[in-house]
Amino acid sequence: FLFVSAVEVKIEVVIPEKERSKEEMSPNGKASPLIYKVNGTARHYHLEEHPIASNPYHNPKDVVEASVCHVKDLENGQMREVDLGCGKALLIKESGEFHAVGHKCPHYGAPLVKGVLSKGRVRCPWHGACFNISTGDIEDFPGLDSLPRFQVKIEKEKVYIRASKQALQTQRRTKMMAKCISLSNYNLSSTNVLIIGAGAAGLVCAETLRQEGFSDRIVMCTMDRHLPYDRPKLSKSLDSHPEQIALRPKEFFCTYDIEVLTEMHVAAVDIKNKTAVFKDGFKMEYNKLLIATGNTPKALSCKGKEVENVFNIRTPEDANRVVKLATSKNVVIVGASFLGMEVAAYLAERAHSVSLVELEEVPFKKFFGERVGRAVMKMFESNRVKFYMQTEVSELREQEGKLKEVVLKSGKVLRADVCVVGVGAVPATGFLKQSGINIDSKGFIVVNKMMQTNIPGVFAAGDAVMFPLALRNNKKVNVPHWQMAHMHGRIAALNMLAHGMEISTIPYLWTAMFGKSIRYAGHGEGFDDVVIQGDLDELKFVAFYTKSDEVVAVASMNYDPIVSKVAEVLSAGRTIRKRDHCCFFLRFRTGDMSWLTGKGS
Do 578 and 531 form a contact (C-beta atoms < 8 A)? Predict the structure, then answer.
């Protein structure tokens, strides 16, 4: 793990026991730092011990075994949450066989018994993560951990589960990973794999490489000051601290020899010499490169944009500062984007007033359609959020250097102590313009199904890429979703190892506002109709987005797990026709799973 300051880079790594020597240890038993000189700057390696947890089944006292049901209690295709006394498991029967895994999704703890079972895997009802029921392995995202798998046996027509108490309590399992070999022999200025960006795509890439047995050096670098964290939470829970939303603890990176350079800005990539050039002049050679730099928020271009207390929420510090300044004050949010709407919802009960300025007629019109957008807008208005639609900001006025008023082009003047800007983002790829890597006219990196760029050994993933989406006949699209970034990272890692893996996942996203969630699966760009089932006024609905005769996406509120069911249908390569949406909805309500098994029409 690397700490970066203006003067030096401190690196903490774990050296395998067989590589350690007594000479490296200080008299008190702690590891002594090894110091290297690179480009004239001192960089310190600190060797620390981070023991890996042993197999929980090795301790007999940690094991519980219990009879959970009769063999005839479950039909094929059924799931049941069962209690083993010290924790619960998910019991599944499929094709005549019983399986037992953790009952909670490791991502946010959703009850998997309410999810979707289909062809050997269970899909989370909340955010769409998928797990193999035989192994517990995660197969689609979001989230990093797999499910614990428990032993099942049948005796005298009764089903028994044997499980680790620890696994029942944690409800998650980290896949076995390789460690780096001969790390002490490395030249600090070269690495086998360099990952630019430490978001979901970058982290999953690094973890996948280790899971697949890759034992060479991996370096991640990021302009952020923190280890990888759950960025979607920044706008949904603005008072979250970095350690609360960290995707992995510091010890994880040490244990698996994944080095992270924080506050490091890559200024250019020299593809001919396979070298990344950092802003401070430091250079690092690589063998394989992943570019996962994400997006940069757009700023306002109006008069007064430089005044204090105007924020793009990009970091935990930004989010925390906004909450502090907004409490009992007047807030103006510019842009009814996902970020803007989520921030407005979070601040509605905390601020004195929340005003939202948007150029469109209704929020989310291009994404969810006008009818859904109006229903969401009504929910916000009932929670004291005031909308100023079809207008823009013309000026930000200050008093003693701090924001005081927001002036709209309509002439309206809004009192404002703090302003949050959520008017979109652009790909953070400016440093690649002279690199030779294929960038489109909007700044997106163009990749193929294996996340490869036009340059051998250079891959790209996450919000900054255009990739072929199988769901839309391999049309090149940009899908800036948290779940998709995870999958991009995994596919890139597998193809760095020459697995020849192509991406085929179904896009899945969610947003949370006022304790309610909208879930969405598919890719509805260019939809020409929205068919609503349920009641928009009651905020209990399913929206089918169609293009010509085909359902290309679905959104729902208070109708779980229908979005996960649609995702499974689309993932299986099946098509939902516009004329069939009503039939699909009725089958969902009656529990008919034939759409998933392929037996339905």
Answer: yes
Cα–Cα distance, 203 to 482 (Å, whole number): 12
Domain segments of the chain as ranges: 63-170, 176-298+426-506, 310-423, 515-590
Are domains 310-423 and 515-590 of this chain identical in fold?
Answer: no
Instruction: Round to whole Å and give the CA distance between 45 and 2.
Output: 9
Rounded mean pLDDT, 567-588: 83
How do residues 191-242 score in pLDDT, each as one tens digit? Answer: 899 999 999 999 999 999 999 999 999 999 999 999 999 999 999 999 999 9
Threshold 0.85, pTM exceeds: yes
The secondary structure element, H or E, covering residue 316 is helix 316-326
> How far is residue 90's CA from residue 81's CA, in Å, rounded to a whole number?
5
Cα 307 to the chain's mean position, in Å?
A: 32
596, pLDDT greater than 70: no
According to DSSP, residue 52 is labeled P
Give, for 251, the enclosing helix (H) or strand (E).
Answer: helix 250-255
Separation of alpha carbons 307 and 398, rounded Å: 6
**Structure-model confidence comparison of residues 45 and 597, the more confident one:** 597
CATH architecture, domain defined by 515-590: 2-Layer Sandwich (3.30)
For residue 456, cis peptide bond before it (omega within 30 degrees of 0) = no
- Specify which residues 229 forms β-bridges with: 246
Choose among 277, 302, 301: nearest CA to 289.
277
The fold for domain 310-423 equals FAD/NAD(P)-binding domain (3.50.50)
* pLDDT of 58: 55
Stated length of the chain:
601
d(CA 180, CA 233): 32
